[in-house]
Design a protein that fits this description.
Blueprint: H1 17-44, H2 46-79, H3 87-94, E1 98-106, H4 107-117, H5 119-122, H6 137-140, H7 144-163, H8 169-176, H9 179-190, H10 196-209, H11 219-222, H12 237-245, H13 250-271, H14 279-292, E2 304-312, H15 324-340, H16 342-355, H17 365-402, H18 410-427, H19 430-439, H20 445-450, H21 452-466, H22 471-494
């Protein structure tokens, strides 16, 4: 049997169980005192902390809306069968950070406002609101391709009505056309597919007919009150019940009342010798056209134009109740206080651990403590400066895919942005945990090397649990932890476990 030393080599490190408990109590008290003091300091600057941690979220939202604006612009020009959006327009989005937002203006009111604002420059500006506009064909003729078919159908109706016997609204309009206009209508009616120029010519002809004073008092149009009969959707129970119980439609009432008033004003203007080519006449004829030809012409609408207005992205993170902002401020202070006092807390932990070490091992505390702090700070910095951006960009891609605008709550983001760095900081203690397990004899360096595949699998599983449900953050945690695993093996080789002096194989 090997010789066992008679002297107690470690009598200076001997402590009773009660002394260990007392040392633990003192370390915990000091740690709590430091945490409370750090939290009090953090309360004073918590609002700055909340503003700072919103930075990654606002930057990601800003990129999301700018990219979405570019995609929407490209899709819009593609839908218009154009090659691509103008680079000057895209430069406003990418370089200036401006997003287009379309606003619809009533052209008539816009012209009136311009005249009032600057009569000298816009006083002679004229606009005839009640007409068919080439740029407005989608509103008047039910869409681009469908609109072309309906314009051709209207031309065919006028052509056939002109050749038919008997009186009809179409025959009256045909009689009011000039020879050149009739030739144009016949040409459009005979074509299988009409072009944009054909559409423009037909729209101009219809607009010209609106100024004819013979139309309202004619036998063909005098019986029209402006109402448009719609078939009852018997296949739709809700629409059918509404038609039974709602009675006269308010929109129909408005049409009938408006046509009646317009007829009276036009008639009074004719009696006074006023010009028949007035806005009231054109408006009345426009309503009568829609009532006479409902299959081809839609009811009139205000003439509006889409004007893009450019504005910077305004990212605002929201709260949903009154007390949420206070809880956010308090939570930010608590977690920030822990981060600020983490060096003191780690020092107290290592102080307690050092009490139970042998004299020749206490020197390692001065190595472990700075190393532990560096690993913790590296983990938190990695999460804050390198993880948030790709994770948010990845998650917002699904918003873009599903065409859903994100509207994040500050409380949910705060939990994410504060606890994820803590998880990274704690996970980065892996090399020290491996060294500790090696020194107490739980694992050897050979076992670490032999089980490295299982260890990496465990690392990826833990990373999946500690990070959000996305592969980016999991990889950004798992890959550094894999590197730290092999760093832990290197530490175990650099600081090997000392031999137990009480082991039977020990020889002084």
């Amino acid at each position: 049997m090997s010789n066992i030393p008679n002297d107690d080599l470690f009598k200076e490190s001997t402590m009773s169980f009660g002394e260990h408990l007392e040392e633990l109590r003192v370390s915990l008290f000091r740690s709590m005192f430091g945490l409370v003091l750090g939290t009090v300091v953090a309360l004073l600057i918590a609002h700055h902390i909340v503003h700072a941690i919103q930075g990654p979220l606002k930057d990601a939202l800003d990129r999301f809306y700018l990219d979405k604006a570019v995609d929407d612009m490209m899709d819009e020009y593609k839908a218009k069968e154009k090659d691509s959006a103008p680079p000057e327009t895209l430069a406003l989005i990418r370089e200036e950070g401006l997003i287009p937002s379309k606003t619809e203006f009533d052209v008539a009111q816009l012209v009136t406002a311009l005249k009032i604002a600057d009569p000298a420059q816009f006083g002679d500006l004229k606009f005839t609101p009640h007409r068919f506009l080439e740029a407005d064909f989608e509103d008047d003729f039910d869409g681009h391709q469908a609109g072309k078919k309906k314009i051709r159908g209207m031309a065919t109706l006028l052509q056939k009505s002109g050749a038919a016997s008997g009186e009809s609204p179409g025959k009256l309009l045909w009689s009011l056309l000039s020879i050149k206009q009739r030739q144009t209508v016949e040409s459009i009616a005979d074509k299988d597919e009409i072009t944009d120029s054909d559409r423009a010519e037909m729209v101009a002809i219809l607009s010209d007919l609106l100024s004819k004073p013979q139309i309202p008092d004619s036998d063909e149009f005098s019986g029209l009150d402006g109402s448009i009969s719609k078939p009852i959707e018997t296949y739709n129970p809700v629409a059918w019940l509404n038609s039974l119980f709602e009675g006269e439609d308010k929109y129909k009432e408005s049409l009938v009342s408006t046509v009646k008033k317009l007829r009276q004003r036009v008639s009074e203007a004719d009696e006074d010798g006023a010009s028949g080519n007035s806005d009231d006449l054109r408006r009345l004829n426009r309503l009568l056209f829609a009532a006479a030809f409902p299959d081809f012409i839609r009811p009139p609408r205000q003439v509006v134009v889409d004007v893009p207005t450019w504005k910077p992205t305004e990212i605002r993170v929201q709260t949903l109740n009154a007390q949420e902002a206070f809880m956010i401020w308090l939570k930010a202070a608590l977690i920030s206080g822990f981060v600020m006092t983490s060096p003191w807390i780690f020092w107290q932990i290592w102080t307690f651990v050092a009490v139970g070490l042998y004299p020749h091992e206490k020197k390692y505390v001065h190595i472990y403590l700075p190393f532990s702090l560096v690993l913790f700070l590296c983990g938190t910095c990695l999460a804050f400066f390198f993880v948030f951006e790709p994770v948010l960009d990845f998650l917002f891609q699904f918003n873009k895919l599903l065409d859903i605008d994100p509207d994040p709550r500050i409380s949910e983001w705060l939990s994410f942005v504060l606890f994820l760095p803590l998880g990274f900081g704690i996970a980065f203690q892996l090399p020290l945990v491996m060294l500790f397990l090696n020194r107490i004899g739980v694992f050897s360096v050979e076992q670490y090397l032999e089980k490295w595949r299982i260890a990496i699998l465990v690392i990826f599983v833990i990373s999946m649990v500690l990070t959000p449900a996305d592969p980016i953050s999991m990889l950004l945690m798992a890959i550094p932890l894999t590197v730290l695993y092999f760093l832990g093996i290197a530490l175990c080789r650099w600081m090997p476990r000392g031999r137990n002096p009480f082991d039977e194989a020990y020889e002084p």
